[in-house]
Amino acid sequence: MEDKIMLLRKIQSAIQQIQPLAAKGWPPGQSILRQLGWSEGFVSGGPSDPAPGPLSMGLIATRELDMYGDNPDLALLINDIQDAVNSLH
Question: Helices 72-88 and 27-44: crossing angle, nearest 10°?
Answer without folding.
Answer: 40
